[in-house]
Design goal:
Layout: E1 2-6, E2 9-13, E3 20-24, H1 25-35, H2 41-51, H3 61-73
Antiparallel strand pairs: 1-2, 2-3
Helix pairs in contact: 1-2, 1-3
């Protein structure tokens, strides 16, 4: 998947489907992290907080869960069995 970033947003082109998606920086971070292999939501949450120098009040479990749901709805990720 090819992507470009600017001003807090990313455009992603999915070579397999031919679809183009607009993602937030955090959404793209999660997608790229998951390309390396399956991760728990807790590990993804810690990664987002570290990447964006955020704390509990800025990035919570619900935000990561929502981003993962969006990525799954776009068929960019799927749950690990």
């Amino acid at each position: 998947m090819r992507h470009r970033q600017w001003q807090g947003e990313s455009v992603l082109y999915n070579d397999l489907s031919g679809d183009t998606h607009l993602l937030s920086e955090a959404g793209l971070f999660l997608l790229l992290a998951l390309q390396a292999g399956p991760l728990t939501e807790r590990a993804l949450l810690a990664g987002v907080r570290a990447e964006f120098d955020a704390d509990d009040g800025e990035v919570g479990d619900a935000m990561v869960a929502e981003l993962l749901d969006e990525l799954q709805a776009l068929v960019l990720i799927e749950p690990a069995a």
